[in-house]
Amino acid sequence: MPVRVIVFDLGHTLWDIGDAGDALAGAYERARETLVIALGPGRVPPAAALQSAVTDALRDSAETYFMQSPNLEQPPTHTWVDAGCRSFGLVLTPALLREITPPLFATETERLICHDGTRDAVRRLADRGYRVGCITNTLADGAAIRRMLQLHGFGDIMQSVVVSSEEGWRKPHPSLFHKSLRELRATAAEAVFVGDSPWHDIAGAAAVGMHTVLTRQYVSRPDVVGTTPDAIIHHVRELADVVSRLDSPAPRTRAGG
Question: SS3 of 153, please?
Answer without folding.
Answer: coil
